[in-house]
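To illustrate the input format used throughout this study, we show a single complete record. The first block contains the structure-token representation of the backbone; no residue identities are included at this stage. The design step must infer an amino acid for every position from geometry alone.
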């Protein structure tokens, strides 16, 4: 067991008492973390002190820079490189749609993505549902493909390893929501990814880490300030995450839905959020002004070029021809029916995420193996009318015991009652 160290105890005391910690001490903290020199109980105490006391902009910048430098850092070539990051959602297949779509309009994206975090999904888990795809690209392979194809997505194995250690402890100590810790976690990975411009999709609502819109705005503002302080351009789009995006939650299901969206047959909400994010990517990268960006996006979607780009990317990474017809499917299905009629007055993204993850779509603990085929199909969304006996959602599953536990969450996900006042999907754009 690692022994408590005195300098680190002093650092915890400073933070506990609401004093700023020097840049050098944040650097030393990240180095000691990487060397395995700090016991979990001391790191956890620091995280809780940050949760209550916060961090200054300078402290956040110092911690972020140290975390970004804790692993591999990409150096990208010239070109209109841009990156996007979601703060985490449910049914959030926006990367699968917006990245190839923006690339079809001239952007270059070398994207490092993660696996599921907490209750939220991860792009790497989703893409892994595609047969034969290779997500373990080296930095050179990622760059070469982004230059040649326009986009590439790989797993962020060796990037900002300090974040992995800190995140696991945040998850276990109820400190995930601490704003400076979120900023340093997200931005350290983006800075190490090397792009000069970022679009943050900051989710707000029941299925997001930021439950309150004000908190999401604060998070978006802090991400932009910290990105700009590091010499990057940044935009934050605040998007609603009260109910899941689209009509599916689960890895292969969401890939199929992204394909449909790029083929012009997808759900409106996924299309709208993806279009706004892709337009901001083109704008912040200096490829087109806002109106021209929307025009180009519409044209590439209509001509099938946006879908062709996703196909080209997947094939370049090892997927076979017509891979979207070969996605895994669960063996069994179970319906969840409405007990009474009315309108869907609420659809709780968090409960849907728990239902899907219990079936095996996500992880309860880091070591869990994800089942790419399972998940949830939503037949009704907030504001839609229902009659008693209508199927609200279908659970696609492979394991009866998992289904039994999943149903406990699925049954409480829907509220049926009065017609709700809809909240806009795009809650704001911060620059
Ligand atoms: N996504 C991240 O990468 N880190 C966080 O802390 C929250 C969402």
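Output of the design step:
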């Amino acid at each position: 067991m690692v022994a408590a160290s005195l300098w680190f105890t002093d650092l915890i005391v400073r933070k506990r008492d609401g004093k700023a910690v020097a840049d050098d001490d944040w650097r030393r903290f990240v180095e000691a973390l990487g060397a395995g020199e700090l016991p979990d109980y001391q790191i956890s105490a620091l995280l809780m002190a940050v949760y209550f006391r916060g961090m200054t902009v300078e402290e956040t910048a110092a911690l972020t820079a140290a975390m970004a430098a804790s692993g591999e850092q990409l150096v990208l070539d010239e070109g209109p490189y841009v990156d996007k990051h979601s703060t985490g959602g449910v049914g959030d297949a926006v990367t699968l749609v917006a990245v190839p779509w923006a690339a079809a309009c001239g952007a270059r994206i070398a994207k490092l993505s993660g696996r599921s975090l907490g209750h939220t999904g991860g792009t790497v888990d989703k893409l892994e549902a595609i047969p034969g795809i290779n997500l373990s690209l080296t930095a050179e392979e990622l760059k070469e493909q982004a230059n040649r194809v326009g986009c590439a997505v790989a797993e962020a194995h060796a990037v900002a390893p300090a974040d992995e250690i800190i995140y696991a402890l945040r998850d276990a100590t109820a400190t995930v929501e601490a704003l400076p810790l979120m900023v340093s976690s997200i931005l350290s990975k983006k800075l190490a990814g090397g792009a000069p411009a970022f679009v943050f999709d900051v989710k707000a609502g029941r299925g997001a880490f930021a439950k309150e819109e004000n908190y999401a705005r604060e998070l978006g503002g802090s991400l932009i300030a910290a990105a700009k302080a590091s010499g990057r351009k940044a935009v934050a789009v605040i998007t609603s995450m009260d109910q899941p995006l689209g009509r599916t939650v689960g890895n292969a299901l969401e890939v199929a839905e992204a394909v449909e969206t790029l083929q012009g047959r997808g759900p409106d909400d996924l299309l709208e959020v993806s279009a706004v994010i892709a337009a901001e990517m083109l704008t912040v990268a200096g490829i087109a002004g806002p109106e021209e960006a929307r025009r180009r996006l519409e044209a590439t979607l209509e001509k099938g070029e946006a879908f062709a780009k996703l196909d080209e990317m997947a094939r370049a990474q090892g997927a076979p021809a017509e891979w979207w017809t070969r996605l895994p499917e669960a063996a069994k299905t179970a319906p969840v029916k409405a007990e009474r009629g009315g309108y869907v007055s609420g659809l709780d993204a968090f409960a849907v995420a728990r239902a899907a993850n219990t079936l095996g779509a996500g992880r309860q603990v880091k070591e869990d193996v994800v089942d790419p085929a399972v998940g949830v199909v939503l037949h009704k969304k907030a504001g839609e009318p229902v009659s008693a006996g209508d199927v609200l959602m279908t659970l696609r599953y492979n394991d009866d015991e998992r289904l039994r536990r999943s149903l406990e969450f699925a049954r409480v996900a829907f509220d049926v009652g009065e017609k709700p006042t809809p909240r806009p999907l795009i809650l704001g754009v911060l620059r």
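Structural context for interpreting the output: The two ends are 46 Å apart (CA to CA). The chain is about 45% helix and 15% strand.
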